[in-house]
Amino acid sequence: MADRFLRDHIQSIKPYEPVIPIDVLSKELGLPLDKLIKLDANENPFGMPPSAMKRLANLAFGHIYPDPEARYLKRHLSQVLGVPYQNIVVGAGSDELIDLIMRVILGPGEKLLNCPPTFSFYSANGQVNNLDVVNVQRKPDFSLDFQGIEQAVGSGAKLIFLANPNNPDGGLIPPEVINELLSLPVMVVMDEAYIEFAQGYRSLVSEVMQRENLIVLRTFSKWGGLAGLRLGYGIFPEAIAAAIMKIKQPYNVSVAAAEAGLGALDDLTLLNDRAEQIISERKRVMLRLEKLDFLSPYPSSTNFILNKVIERDAYQIKQALAQRGILIRYFNTPGLRDHIRISIGREEDNNRLLEALEALKA
Ligand SMILES: Cc1ncc(COP(=O)(O)O)c(C=O)c1O
Q1: What are phi and psi of 228, to 5 degrees?
Q2: What residue's CA is closest to ligand 1, atom 2?
Q3: What is the CATH number of the domain that holds 34?
Q4: Any ligand 1 atom below 6 A from CB of 124
Q5: Is any atom of ligand 1 closer than 6 Å to the C-beta of 163?
Q6: Does ligand 1 have an atom closer than 6 angstroms to the CB of 219?
Q7: Mind listing the pLDDT tens digit for each residue in 339-355?
Q8: Domain total of the chain
Q9: pLDDT band of 362, cuts 50, 70, 90
Q10: What does the alpha-carbon distance between residue 8 and residue 195 come to, in Å, rounded to a whole number?
Q11: Residue among 158, 204, 199 nearest 177 (CA)
Q12: For residue 117, is the peptide bond before it cis, meaning its omega torsion is within 30 degrees of 0?
């Protein structure tokens, strides 16, 4: 059998479960694409920003390898963020950067600190890299167990990933806890994939320059409406950025992704306005969800709302919505038993979702 050639730890990995593509789902459910409402992967419901579409329509250099530095995009990001060019690295989604960070910091068997429930790719990718994934479970309200983190750092964990706001609950880490975390001898990766939806909360981007143990990750997938093009970036201490530039695939960011990213930056005002609309829809949806006796929604600073399902079968609710063409995410892992996560869509999508949920009342 060919599997005898495989590395042992690869054989034991359970495959990562990504969401099913929308065209595949449309066939499986027997519903036309335009009848589906995709609220299962926290994508941007308004689509790609117009300047990105225009740049893609006029793409001239698809036959030429991309710039390994993605320098135009990095220059633009450097201006927008107010951080030096050499502290930025662009990747094929923040997923790629998560992998690269693990690879420059930890060797096989070294300890990666993970705080579930959280973005499952951290531990999945830790396993791919044959790391010792040390899980310090969050408290029932999804806040961090700081003492547990301190102990894990004391026992040798060198790297911790924290989504802020967190996926799947949507909560933020209080600033005083961030200060405490940063005082520990551990490299802290703050994954700010949803920060644009956290009203009034300050990003840690500018802090990176003041510290040696902080990395901030950002993505164009959520706020930027470019999930399908795969584009993310990180702000790193200079030595870490240089190490990642050394090991990354030379052409990791495609010509199309880099152009679309520049387009998104041309459309900053529009994208911020769309984020505002999502925030105000989130508030409206939250009020309606709170009225349903079988759901208990958690406060969210993101473009999604996590709900605990009470005295009903969460999986059946997900299925009942899918029959109506509304796709949401269902969880049944420790800390997330009987939970569903609903992304915020456009007003008309949210209305259909709310009507469908209200029709499910016992
Ligand atoms: C917390 C968090 N980080 C990163 C990602 C991945 O982002 P990207 O599309 O940039 O790889 C996600 C996607 O759901 C996420 O929830």
Answers
A1: -75, -15
A2: 193
A3: 3.90.1150.10
A4: no
A5: yes
A6: yes
A7: 999 999 999 999 999 99
A8: 2
A9: low
A10: 38
A11: 204
A12: yes
Which residues constitute the domain of residue 314? 2-47+269-359
Q: From 16, 38, 39, 121, give the residue whose CB has the most ligand 1 atoms within 8 Å, as the site to mutate.
A: 121
pLDDT digits (tens, 9 = 90+) for 73-125: 999 999 999 999 999 999 999 999 999 999 999 999 999 999 999 999 999 99
Q: For 245-250, what is the mean pLDDT? A: 98
For residue 227, pLDDT over 80 is answered with yes
User: From the CB of 95, is ligand 1 less than 6 Å away?
Assistant: yes
Residue 142 Cβ contacting ligand 1 at under 6 Å: no
In terms of pTM, does the model score above 0.90? yes
Cβ contacts of 326 within 8 Å, gap of 6 or more? 36, 37, 39, 352, 353, 356
CB 303 within 8 A of CB 350: no
Check whether residue 170 and residue 225 sit in a common domain.
Answer: yes
pLDDT over 70 at 234, yes or no: yes
Q: How close is the Cα of 94 to the center of ligand 1, in Å?
A: 6
At residue 17, the pLDDT reads: 72
DSSP state of 195: G
The residue out of 234, 268, 302 marking a domain boundary is 268
Pocket test for ligand 1, best of 17, 95, 218 (most atoms within 8 A of CB): 95
* 278, 300 contact by CB (below 8 A): no
Distance 95 CA to ligand 1 centre (A): 6
pLDDT tens for each residue of 54-75: 999 999 999 999 999 999 999 9
